[in-house]
């Protein structure tokens, strides 16, 4: 085999092994080609970015803000992000030393894994999960320790945490996401306190992804950073709260000693955030800190509609406290292979769903309600008819 091809194979193996996001994207692309399909695969808000945020971005461009910016984020962005975390969740971070802005939480996850993990280190990741954590850890040569939560309503329990830490005493980090993707399940303050009591006894970092914190529907969001400030590396951002996925802006909040290390990796990879994005982010976190309110109200209506629709269809799911997903159990009269079932439903019912196995949990499908109520009604009718036909077979 020619040397170039050998080299290419080596390259592909290192990066792709163990990573799954591409499976989800590929299926999405396939479904988009189906005429009249209702896509409930979507992992991003269907709303537009608030007008005042767009205006801030335009003003920044008009002001010729076109030179290299500050790598960690502009002073205004960092100040407003710190106020957002304080006002919304009671978290105290020094904007100068304990915050960093990144190209979305996604870059923050990579920076963090690269900073924390050496090849061979272990990182604990409860399943099912957003696939980027495991992919990033794998790219860093680390080993993922998956922990199933399917029998515990998709929450990591203190007992299971204690057991996994006993088995993996050298694990460097644990990833927790609340509210979580793909389940929408969120930890309550009491549940967080119980996990924190266990984690405090271990020399382990908590990588806490709270990107959906603004989208909780029954109770205010509770943050791991409040219970475990010294161990937690907290992610948040504007993608979900302000419908700004395309702007690419995330924040990391953590003790200064961690931020200074993360900042080195961030600067190496990116030099800096685009200035226009930082200007928009400062507006979103500052004057727009409550922008999610109207979107939250709309998502809540959609969630209520789907709860009654799924209940009528006899579908089982764990009650989603937040985000915009249901994680629905595949009824036993249906095809159990998630990918095959997703393709069958797309073709026969014209509804696009994401198989749970893409998030590390077979036997479930993720259903997103980041789409209009009108579309959800069409999808529910189609799914109901599909289930009736399958049941009758
Ligand atoms: N974290 C979770 C749990 C997500 O579901 C997503 C996107 O779907 C992200 C992070 C990505 O966030 P960002 O757009 O800030 O990179």
In CATH, the topology of the largest domain is named Aspartate Aminotransferase, domain 2
Just name the CATH architecture of the largest domain.
3-Layer(aba) Sandwich
Number of domains: 2
What is the number of helical segments per DSSP (H or I, 4+ residues)? 14
Strand content: 5-15%
Molecules bound to protein:
pyridoxal-5'-phosphate
Q: In total, how many beta strands?
A: 12
Strand order of the largest sheet: 2-8-7-6-5-3-4
Distance between the termini: 52 Å
Keywords: Aminotransferase, Pyridoxal phosphate, Transferase
Cofactor: pyridoxal 5'-phosphate
Enzyme class: transferase
EC number: 2.6.1.-
Notes on the structure:
This is Aminotransferase. Helix content is 45%, strand content 13%. With 393 residues, the chain is of the alpha/beta class. The protein folds into 2 domains: 142 residues, Aspartate Aminotransferase, domain 1, CATH 3.90.1150.10; 220 residues, Type I PLP-dependent aspartate aminotransferase-like (Major domain) (Aspartate Aminotransferase, domain 2). The protein has a 7-stranded mixed beta sheet, sandwiched between helices. Strands 9-12-11 form a 3-stranded antiparallel beta sheet. Strands 1-10 form a two-stranded parallel sheet. Helix 4 runs parallel beside helix 11, helix 5 packs across helix 6 and helix 5 crosses helix 10.
């Amino acid at each position: 085999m020619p040397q170039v091809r050998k080299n290419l194979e080596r390259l592909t193996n290192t990066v792709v092994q163990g990573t799954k996001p591409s499976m989800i994207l590929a299926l999405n692309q396939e479904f988009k080609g189906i005429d009249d399909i209702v896509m409930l695969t979507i992992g991003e808000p269907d709303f537009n970015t608030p007008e005042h945020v767009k205006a801030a971005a335009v003003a920044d461009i008009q002001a010729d803000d076109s030179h290299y910016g500050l790598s960690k984020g502009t002073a205004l962005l960092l100040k407003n992000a710190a106020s957002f975390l304080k006002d919304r969740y009671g978290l105290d971070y020094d904007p100068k030393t304990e915050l960093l802005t990144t190209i979305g939480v996604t870059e923050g996850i990579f920076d963090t894994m690269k900073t924390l993990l050496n090849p061979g280190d272990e990182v604990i990741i409860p399943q099912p999960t957003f696939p980027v954590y495991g992919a990033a850890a794998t790219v860093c040569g680390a080993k993922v320790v998956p922990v199933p939560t399917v029998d515990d309503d998709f929450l990591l329990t203190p007992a299971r945490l204690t057991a996994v830490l006993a088995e993996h005493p050298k694990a460097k980090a644990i990833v927790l996401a609340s509210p979580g993707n793909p389940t929408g399940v969120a930890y309550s303050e009491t549940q967080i306190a119980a996990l924190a009591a266990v984690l405090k006894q271990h020399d382990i970092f908590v990588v806490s992804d709270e990107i959906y914190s603004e989208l909780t529907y029954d109770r205010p969001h509770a943050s791991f950073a409040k219970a475990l400030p010294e161990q937690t590396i907290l992610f948040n951002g504007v993608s979900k709260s302000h419908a700004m996925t395309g702007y690419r802006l995330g924040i990391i909040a953590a003790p200064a000693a961690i931020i200074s290390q993360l900042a080195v990796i961030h600067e190496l990879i990116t030099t800096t955030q685009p200035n226009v994005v930082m200007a928009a982010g400062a507006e979103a976190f500052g004057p727009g800190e409550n922008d999610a309110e109207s979107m939250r109200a709309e998502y809540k209506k959609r969630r209520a509609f789907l709860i009654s629709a799924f209940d009528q269809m006899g579908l089982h799911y764990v009650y989603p406290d937040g985000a915009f997903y249901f994680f629905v159990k595949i009824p036993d009269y249906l095809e159990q292979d998630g990918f095959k079932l997703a393709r069958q439903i797309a073709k026969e019912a014209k509804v696009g769903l994401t198989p749970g196995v893409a998030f590390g949990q077979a036997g479930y499908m993720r259903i997103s309600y980041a789409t209009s109520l009108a579309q959800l009604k069409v999808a529910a009718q189609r799914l109901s008819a599909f289930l009736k036909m399958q049941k009758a077979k």
